[in-house]
Amino acid sequence: MSERDIEKTYSNKEFVEKLRRLADSIESGENFRITVDNEAIYVPDRATFNIEHERGDGDNEIEFQIKWKD
């Protein structure tokens, strides 16, 4: 697979819907499927989750990260 690094902005409603589906998948121990920029991505139930905070030049950023190996 080729490398990829994209960022997509969602409306509040869309973001909440995606987070809710993710939370339901995590809670039930199921895989999660999400489409980002027209590509379906399957997140396995073995994935790990972390939250990252970055600060610099007056900007703050929180990233909810999901990681797994193919």
Write structural notes for this entry.
- The structure is a single chain.
- The chain is of the alpha+beta class.
- The protein has one domain.
- Helix content is 24%, strand content 40%.
- The chain contains one helix and four strands.
- The protein has one helix at residues 12-28, and strands spanning 32-36, 39-43, 48-56, 59-67.
- The strands form two sheets. It has a two-stranded antiparallel sheet with strand order 1-2. It has a two-stranded antiparallel sheet with strand order 3-4.
- The termini are close together.
- The mean pLDDT is 93.
**Roughly what is the average pLDDT, rounded to an integer?**
93
Strand order of the largest sheet: 1-2
Task: Please estimate the helix content.
Answer: 10-25%
Secondary-structure-based class equals alpha+beta
Q: End-to-end distance, in Å? A: 10 Å
Order of helices and strands: HEEEE
Major sheet: size, sense and barrel closure? 2 strands, antiparallel
Number of helices: 1
- Round the Cα radius of gyration to an integer and report it: 14 Å
Number of separate structural domains: 1
Features:
alpha+beta; two-stranded antiparallel ribbon; 70 residues
Question: What is this entry, summarized?
Answer:
By secondary structure, the chain is α+β, with helices and mostly antiparallel strands. Helices cover 24% and strands 40% of the residues. It contains one helix and four strands, in the order αββββ.
